[in-house]
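Friendly challenge for the regulars: who can give me the structure tokens for this chain first? No prize, just bragging rights.
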Amino acid sequence: MSGKTKVLIIDDDPAICESVKAILEGNGYAADTALSGKSGLEKFKATAPDIVLCDMMMEDIDSGIKIAAAMRAERKDIPLFLLSSIGDVTAENIGISQIGYNGVFQKPVDFDALLTVLGTVARTFLPKAD
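First reply, four minutes later:
Bragging rights claimed.
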């Protein structure tokens, strides 16, 4: 997995986690999943991903906001994207950056858009592997 951009996917829907993971791994990323905010934060600390995709509503209706705040407290620069069925509504009513996210992917996920954005983030903002 050396040299691959590591993406952590946090969502309580196993089908979402596995489908996004499969697409990412099929396109050269290293992907890991977590089915709750708690396990997501544990994996975040243990694996130091380069990018995080996180659902908004899991254990609590605002789990995604709490997770973003905890991750930002540890790594202010982590590219963090909301992965949610309420993403568009949230973006219209609340600034995504105000709740700790760099952007939003609406479910069902447009995989072409996901790969385009993550590719841009990896090339532009992440350190280059030696």
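The longest strand covers residues 6-10. The longest helix spans residues 111-125. Your move, everyone else.
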